[in-house]
Structure formats: C-alpha cells, structure tokens
C-alpha cells in the first residue's frame, strides 16, 4: 500500500451518513438526515421533463442567465434587495459547494474563521483544508442558542478573516433578529472581516417571525457571501442546486474557485427552476407547511418526559432527554435506532467541545404518519 499523509486525518464519515446507514440497516424511521420524506411538485417534475430535451450540454460557468435573473428577481421580491444577476449571482451545485468556494476564495493559511457551535459539520473541515484556523464559540442551549456578542467581540483578532453565519440554524432551529444583525455589523464595522452566511432555510421560519438575511444590513451585505439552496425549499435535495449572492468584487473571487470545483451545474435543472421560481407561492407557503408538521410532531410529546426546545425555523426539532436517560447523546441515538427503530442526530457532534447537554435533533420534514409513529415510539420510553 502506498503511504501518504491524510489532509484531514481528524475527519471521519459524517454523522448524517452514519445514522442514515444505521437507519437503513435496522429499518428505522429516519428522522436523522435533513431531507424531505416526500417528492417535489408534479409541476416542477413536468418542467424538468420538458427542459431535459434540448438542454443537456454544459451550462455557462456562473449559471444559465435566465435562472440567475430569476434568482435576482426572487431576492428583490422577498427582501427588497436589488441584485445584479450577471455580476452578483452564481449558480452552484448545492449550498455545500457555495460554502466551500466562499471559504477557499478568501481564507489563507493562518487566517482565523469564527463559527458558532453547534455548527454545521461542513464549516470546520473546509476552513482547515484552506489552511485556516477554525475558532469555535459555543452557544448555550439554556439561553436559546443565542450568540454571545461580547464574547465574539473579544475573540476578534488581527488574524480574523471571516465569520460564519447560519440562520435559520441547523441543528437547533434558532433564528437571528434585527438586533443580531446590528450587533454583528457593529463588531465588523471598519474591519476587513468577511461574512459567509448559510441561509438555506430562509423560507422556513415560524410563528409569524421574519428571516433576517445579512443582505438586509448594508454594512453586512457589502462584505457577505450569502449561500442558498433550492433543495430545502422545493423538496429536491438530490438535485444539488444552490446559489451564492455576493458583491461583484467577492463574486469574481468566488467564481475563480467555482470554475475548478464543479465548473457548472446541471443545465435542465436550472431551466426548470427558472420557470418554477416565477411563481412566489411555491416558496412563500413553505413556512406554514412546515409549521403544521412542527406542531403536529410537538403535540405528540405532550405529557411526556421529553422536553422540546424552541424551534423557530428550519425543519428540525431539538429535544432534551435528560429526564429519560443519562446516556451520551451519541450512544442514545444509536440505541434508539436499533431498539425502537427511530433515527436521530446527536447534537454533541456539532461542537468542538461538547457540552453536557442531553439533546437529540429530529427532522420533521416527513409524512405525518411517520412523525406520529416516531413520536409514539419515543414517548413510551
């Protein structure tokens, strides 16, 4: 065997892959990995079938122009923000690629990138591969997973290159407020710090609340890469189509990386989504759709020893099991998958230094009967 050093010796198979594989092995209800348990609309499928004829060669590197314009139009409608479709929009093969390219186009060896734990597990490895240094700041479950702005301000150093933002938040379902945008803007004002904002759940915010994108604050917008995805919005995670919105000077650098990663994304998918985006109801009704599922799932735990934490966005519900078991969350997640056939995700894997919390994350983007059956099995513990 040829020997060579690993560039990511500390990285193992992701928890999502592990738990989904375990769910398959034991025939479990898979509420672990964050993908919808239902198909996309027939209208979108019909558009894909239509554009699969005659649109099967390479798309332009930055995206099909009409699709980029549809993304810009949606941004204007939803946020009231004007985007130059040709200079500030890039189509990518999923938000993970957008995050990777955003990090690699601006992070140099020795640069520090701040992220808030629990943080999505793609952030840290991408920073390390760029030679950067991930700086993890933990959020407190007892305080609603809100960011400690004073701690962030104290953590900023001359080496700080970027700050990772994620709202609505995976895995906790927390969301940012206008005050949060203002606090971040005040901290980065007058610096060269960039913002890499993961906003893939932008249309899944509950209880009449609003998604506060970093695009809405001028100080943040001018220094931000905003990474989005149609996978979560239209129930098409397997299409792997996303986008990056950024000022022209950042977009130029972003596209230099993008051209060497995927170069371009699937052409017929872009045309189909371009047409589908023209009808706002396809994404404006998403929050109500998922709020009904959140509430259905939550109601099934009434009177049990499971303690549901607030879920203000995304399609995840975090639940405290401290009154049920003293097991580590990783151990309990595995045991529940094997013994009662309900798969979840342990929250500790999203921390650099896991706290003592007893919390599991469940995805409620599933059919109602699956949610009710999973809850029924869990409350019997």
TrEMBL record:
GO cellular component assignments: cytoplasm
Gene3D superfamilies the record matches: Aspartate Aminotransferase, domain 1, Type I PLP-dependent aspartate aminotransferase-like (Major domain)
Record flagged with keyword Transferase: yes
InterPro entries (UniProt xref): Aminotransferase_I/II_large (IPR004839), Kynurenine-oxoglutarate_AT (IPR051326), PyrdxlP-dep_Trfase (IPR015424), PyrdxlP-dep_Trfase_major (IPR015421), PyrdxlP-dep_Trfase_small (IPR015422)
Keyword vocabulary terms for this entry: Aminotransferase, Pyridoxal phosphate, Transferase
Domain Aminotransferase class I/classII large: start-end pairs: 29-376
Pfam families: Aminotran_1_2
A molecular function GO annotation: kynurenine-oxoglutarate transaminase activity
Cofactors required: pyridoxal 5'-phosphate
Protein family according to the UniProt entry: Belongs to the class-I pyridoxal-phosphate-dependent aminotransferase family.
Protein name, UniProt field: Aminotransferase class I/II-fold pyridoxal phosphate-dependent enzyme
């Amino acid at each position: 065997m040829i020997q060579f050093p690993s560039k990511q010796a500390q990285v193992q198979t992701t928890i999502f892959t592990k738990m989904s594989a375990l769910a398959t092995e034991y025939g479990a209800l898979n509420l672990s990995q964050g993908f919808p348990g239902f198909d996309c609309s027939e209208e979108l499928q019909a558009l894909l079938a239509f554009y699969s004829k005659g649109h099967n060669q390479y798309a332009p590197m930055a995206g099909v122009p009409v699709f980029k314009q549809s993304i810009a139009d949606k941004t204007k409608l939803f946020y009231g923000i004007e985007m130059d479709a040709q200079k500030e929009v890039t189509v990518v093969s999923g938000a993970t690629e957008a995050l990777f390219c955003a990090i690699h186009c601006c992070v140099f060896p020795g640069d520090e990138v701040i992220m808030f734990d629990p943080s999505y597990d793609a952030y840290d490895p991408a920073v390390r591969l760029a030679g950067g240094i991930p700086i993890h700041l933990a959020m407190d479950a007892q305080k609603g997973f809100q960011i400690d702005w004073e701690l962030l301000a104290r953590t900023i150093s001359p080496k700080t290159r970027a700050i990772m933002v994620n709202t609505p938040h995976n895995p906790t379902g927390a969301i940012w407020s206008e005050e949060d945008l203002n606090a971040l803007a005040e901290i980065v004002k007058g610096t060269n710090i960039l913002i890499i904002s993961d906003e893939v759940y932008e249309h899944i915010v509950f209880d009449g609340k609003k998604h506060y994108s970093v695009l809405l604050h001028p100080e943040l917008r001018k220094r931000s890469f905003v990474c989005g995805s149609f996978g979560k919005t239209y129930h098409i995670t397997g299409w792997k189509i996303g986008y990056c919105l950024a000022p022209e000077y950042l977009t130029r650098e972003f596209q230099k990386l993008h051209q060497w990663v995927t170069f371009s994304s699937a052409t017929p998918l872009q045309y189909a989504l371009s047409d589908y985006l023209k009808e706002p109801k396809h994404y404006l009704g998403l929050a109500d759709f998922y709020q009904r599922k959140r509430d259905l799932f939550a109601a099934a735990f009434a009177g049990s020893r499971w303690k549901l934490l607030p879920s203000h966005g995304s399609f995840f519900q975090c639940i405290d099991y401290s009154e049920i078991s003293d097991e580590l969350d990783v151990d309990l997640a595995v045991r529940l998958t094997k013994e009662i056939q309900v798969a979840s995700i342990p929250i500790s894997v999203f921390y650099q230094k896991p706290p003592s919390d007893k919390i599991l994350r469940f995805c409620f983007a599933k059919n109602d009967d699956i949610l009710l059956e999973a809850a029924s099995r869990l409350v019997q513990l």
